[in-house]
Amino acid sequence: MIKCNVYRDNSHFVAKPIESRKSSAPRIRQPKDELDFMFDCLYEVYTDQGIKNDEKHREELYKRITYDLHDQLGFDREYALIKDKVFQKLKNKAKAEIQRLNRFEKKAMMFKEYWTHFGTITFSDEVMDEATFEKKIRKLLSNSTNRSGWVISGKFERGEVGGRLHFHFLARILPGTSFSKIEQVKEYNPLTKRMEKRWKNVELEEKFGRTDFAPINRMDLLYGNVAEYVSKYENKSSGKTYYSRGIPTGFTMDVLEEEIACEKKTEVVIVDKETEQERTIENIRYILSDQTFKDVPEETFDVKLFAKRRKIQSVA
Asked: Does a structural domain hold residue 55?
């Protein structure tokens, strides 16, 4: 029996053994100084202009922020120290972004059987400005979650053509709780240059702009279209993610040897912070058998309750 952290990877559950590690001293967070605040401001300015912290734009972003900081702090400040700090902060930002997107994907995949709709709400400058649009969307979704039991996992993104702001999301909408009514319309799409059908939310379209509330059918859930949808927006690194509280990224449970379908091993090189020496560790993950969760009906499956029940059984 192996105690593992379990998460979902597309159609399979993956178990990662929990390693027992020696406790280390808590990390002491240094207070932000003038350079840190100025970096954050410049980073936001340039990323809003489309200069992203990715492989394509990172060098340009690095040069611009470094020059501006050196200019604003005074050319008497040591240039090499500013360069090193900007480089490290951009690296930390990129790492945090990857972790955030991984959490987003895991939450969406863990809740896979429950999603009922693909949704998109598009910003309209005829109704409000972008800041108000984002604020009102967050308020709308918060109210929907608290009052109507909606579950949402989505991202704010800009369109590839024109850069118009959108909110793309997966949603579980309980019957009878949707705003107004959702109806299907047929209209001309200037991008594809043909007539297309879409599902619109009448009330929200009046408040925000163009909407799309396409229902997810059982075939989408079974054959991975939900996973493809999540991956499509997960791979866009610039959007702000949003998800309802309570969606787990995974859970902890005891895994029996016979429940392991196969084992995957990879080698990871890490740097020891104290000695600054590199060492290779083996990263092990188990792909669990499809039969592992068959004792719980899908329509009533709840990962938290299942993990709790399984832990009690294994201890007994």
From this structure: yes
